[in-house]
Amino acid sequence: MTFDELLAEGSAVPVEGWDFSWFDGRATEERPPWRYSGLLAGQMAAASSSLDLHTGGGEVLAGVAAMPPRAVALEAWQPNLPVARRNLGPRGVAVVGGAHTGLPFRAEAFDLVTTRHPTVVPWAEVARVLVPGGRYLAQHVGIGSNRELYEFLMGPQRHDPRPNPERIAAEAGAAGLVVDEAREAWIRLEFFDVAAVVHFLRKVVWTVPDFTVERYRDRLAALHERIGAEGRFVAHASRVLVRAHRP
């Protein structure tokens, strides 16, 4: 395919939900060693009430075998809501739309809060909605993730120099939570054509916040040439397993 055809293909793929099956054969992402989905299933089976933040299309949560008697999922991006309700409604999960800056739930409403790849964590709100002794389980995306990709397009960027686990533990602690574990793994991503890069940047919008094909066409052309010469573009991302509780 030509460069323009690849750009058009990557621009046309729907971005709703968190189904990444389109990338099969076009990009790969290594998985962290702790298997978050298994940890989530264990925590959900032991909970009586749960809240999943940034649920996306509910794909990860829908894979849990046993739901608590009361399970809620929150999603801020409107196009994801019908996808999440389709995936989670049959499982008895109530899907709520709304921002994460002020959680629309009463204090001490849940004994488990979970999230996978949140864009922002409202730590004070998490502490507020957890019961005393309630638990937080999450897999965060650390600062510096995909740095090779976003700096290829945007040039050098500043970021928080603290190690990701240290920064996360400090933010959670400031909200009154006790961090039991904050463990980091760096994983490898490979992109095999520029269409995969375009779709990834449209879907994972915080990687290059002002991304459009038109704005970055010249850099995408350079990236296309590099993939043609090397067979792939390699980047690395931080994943941080976080376990915490409210005292």
**Extended strand count:** 8
The CATH class, by name, is Alpha Beta
Ranges where pLDDT stays below 50 over 5 or more residues in a row are: none
CATH fold group? Rossmann fold
Q: Mean pLDDT, rounded to whole units?
A: 96
Q: How many H/I helical runs?
A: 9
State the shape: globular
The major pleated sheet works out as:
8 strands, mixed
Spatial sequence of strands, sheet with the most strands: 1-7-8-6-5-2-3-4
Whole-number total of structural domains: 1
Distance between the termini: 57 Å
Order of helical and strand elements? HEHEHEHEEHEHHEHHE
Helix content: 25-40%
**Which structural class fits the helix and strand makeup?**
alpha/beta
Question: Beta-strand percentage?
Answer: 25-35%
| CATH architecture annotation name | 3-Layer(aba) Sandwich
Domain Methyltransferase type: 51-137
GO biological process, one term: methylation
Organism: Amycolatopsis suaedae
GO molecular function: S-adenosylmethionine-dependent methyltransferase activity
